[in-house]
Amino acid sequence: MVAGALATAFLTGISLIGTQTPALADDGQPATVADGTYESDQDVLASLDKTDPVNSSESSMGYPAGLEKDKDGNVKAITLADVKGTYDPEQAVKDAQEAARQYAADEKNSAPLRESAKHLADGWAGPGAESQTEKPNGTEVRQNTKDGMLSGGLSAEQYCNMANKDSQSSSFGQAAPCMFVGKLEEKYPQRGASDGLTGEGKLTYKVTASVADEQSTTEGWQVGGKITPSISGDGVSAGGEASFTYSYSTTSTTKVQSTRESDIEINVPQGKKGYLEGRANGATYSGYIVIRDLDTSDNQEHLIAIPARAYIQAPGSSSPITWVKRLKAA
Fold first, then answer.
1. Which residues form the signal peptide (predicted)?
2. What is the DSSP code (8-state) at residue 198?
3. pLDDT tens digits along 146-172
4. What are the boundaries of each domain within the chain?
5. Which of 23, 26, 183, 282 is 20 to 30 A away from residue 151, measured at CA?
């Protein structure tokens, strides 16, 4: 079957560092902890590097749920100029195709999604097929994240979130061939903090984090979800304003879980300010959403690279956020 026909058929636990009292994950087991408090960002990052390591580059299947957003919840228009200096779009496409091949080769992934990954890597007709027609000008590179209209009149987000739900179709369960690839920009970004206390005394907080996963495991890529951390105590509260969305890595071995409410105490000595800080267990990556599209007007496949920045959960971590006890000079 030629590429056009194939394409047409398709389209129809809590972490806590800085306390001697172990926090409990959802399974009731103690989470990894460390003693004391932290006075430098470098020490915080070094500790998180041990408990929730992240990669220098990352990929995420589908349209990334963790796209960077402004304070009003709108996706930021990351520009080509923002990304190209550190990540060439043609290289990003090659990286996406290689990551897609690795995803397709991993038998822990579902057969339909493995097939979808093959489409991203090699097209609908497969590698070397004479019936495959590729536009001659290489990758079509867009100017910013919101520049995402495709040849069929769909936005990139609409297209990438499509899946074949026809149980009688040979392409049942397959999803649109899309992937985000990026280079590391910021590890363990801060997601909420208390106001703190200056001078000798004790702070007491209650912390928790709820998780809402995208329910798309049987109807396309499982792309990620939303985390809402909460800090309360001593008249201080950080709730919905600290929420953030996340994407899953293509190599994720675990899924994030909501956390139980836990109590945290910080003893603040004279001359210091104490506060509680939430650090997301993952990293922000700058790169591209790579899409294999089909222009039905001339039946030609083509690859598109859209600049974007996305937060991706640490691939081996099930904890959405780490609460850190901090001290600094008053």
1. 1-25
2. E
3. 999 998 889 999 999 989 989 899 999
4. 3-329
5. 183
